Amino acid sequence: MSHADNYGLTPPYTTIALFGANGQIGDYILEALVHPPRHQFNIIGFIPPSTQLQSNKNAKNVTVKEFDLITVSPLEAQPTIQDAAADAGVKRFYPSEYGMHHIYRKPGDSKGYVHPAWNLKADINEQALLHPSVRNGSMSFTLIGCGDFYNQAREKTWCPWAQPPSSAPYQIHVIGSPSAQADFTHLADFTAFLVATLLEPQKSHNQFLNVVSDTISHEEIKALLEKYSGKEVVLDVRDLSEMHKVIDTEGECIKEEELKDSAFPVDFWFLVKGLQGSGRFVRHPSQIHNGRFPEVRRTSFEKYFKERFGEVGAKL
User: Fold this and answer.
1) Which Gene3D superfamilies does the protein's record reference (predicted)?
2) Where are the alpha helices (DSSP H) in the chain?
3) What is the pLDDT of residue 6?
4) Rg (CA), the chain
5) Which domains, and CATH codes, for the chain?
6) Which helix H or strand E contains 182, and what residues bound it?
7) What is the pLDDT of residue 3?
């Protein structure tokens, strides 16, 4: 990325390097970068060898480069990417946060535990913030957290409402209390927020920021989904004790294949849903920064369902 980076009124960045530009989140980010308000970025999209962009393949402001990650995961490659960025004189680095971390507490155990997925991300991001270029001020950072991405079409178990309608009722899996509220984020809101931080870099200089689209319970989601889809919605409510059992066995105790139909490990899925059902997957309003960029609108579940299903269900 280019341009001086300080607390003054700096202009938008001009060149953006996006790693994983054809991933689920990367594709949303790329779309937002290609069509930002009042500005045009030059984008270098890095993708794995022998793959291609999902969208914007012919965008004139996108240059595609291959990046081989055969021996490591994209997250584990972050320190190498940051080293190269520092050598290239990059002024702003965005660590791969895009989530919400928690300490897991077992019943009757005074120790706290962190799931390996969250521990790896915390470790890698800690390295990013302690990088020599960040510490000496030649590179700044913006770390963006969010709620549960609720419109992931690939996640049939996590996001049943994002799947094509069928004759069967929608089923929403809940671990714990269905009345407990949790933070959720629409991918388009997240990417619009990210682009806003690039358009006004002074507002995101060395900042930990969080973007949330809706704070809502599974009971409330059920009511809205029934209203706008016109279909029956079933809540599969399981006790929190099942979460503890699944984590103890790393998911081996789960036999239902539909609960394994995810890009995430079964124990991680139960942990996130269990934290939602225990009322812990929610931030205090002071930790949510949507207001820093008021042009970024929140897509509530109701707005999402209304756009997805129209008014048909509401009239049934």
Assistant:
1) NAD(P)-binding Rossmann-like Domain, UDP-galactose 4-epimerase, domain 1
2) 24-34, 78-87, 116-129, 132-135, 187-199, 218-229, 240-248, 266-277, 301-309, 312-315
3) 42
4) 20
5) 15-315 (3.40.50.720)
6) strand 181-185
7) 37
- Label each residue of 111-161 as H, E or C: CEECCHHHHHHHHHHHHHHCCHHHHCCCCEEEEEEECEECCCCCCCCCCHH
Give the angle subtended at the CA of 41 by the CAs of 37 and 187, to the nearest 5°. Answer: 60
Among all chains, which residue has been given the structure tokens 């009042």?
A: 38
Q: How far apart are CA 196 and CA 162, in angstroms?
A: 26
**What is the three-class DSSP state of 285?**
helix
**Residue 147 CB burial class (10 angstroms; 0-12, 13-18, ≥19):** buried
What pLDDT digit, counting tens, does each position of 275-314 carry? Answer: 999 999 999 999 999 999 999 999 999 999 999 998 755 4
Quick one: which of 72, 182, 79, 61 has its CA closest to 127?
79
Sort strands 42-47 and 62-66 into parallel, antiparallel or unpaired: parallel
For residue 231, how many other CB atoms are within 10 A of its CB?
A: 17
* Structural tokens at position 296: 């970024």
Distance in angstroms (rounded) separating the CA atoms of residues 30 and 16: 10
Task: Please give the average per-residue pLDDT across 61-71, as a whole number.
Answer: 85
pLDDT in tens, 198-245: 999 999 999 999 999 999 999 999 999 999 999 999 999 999 999 999
**Stretch 50-71: mean pLDDT:** 90
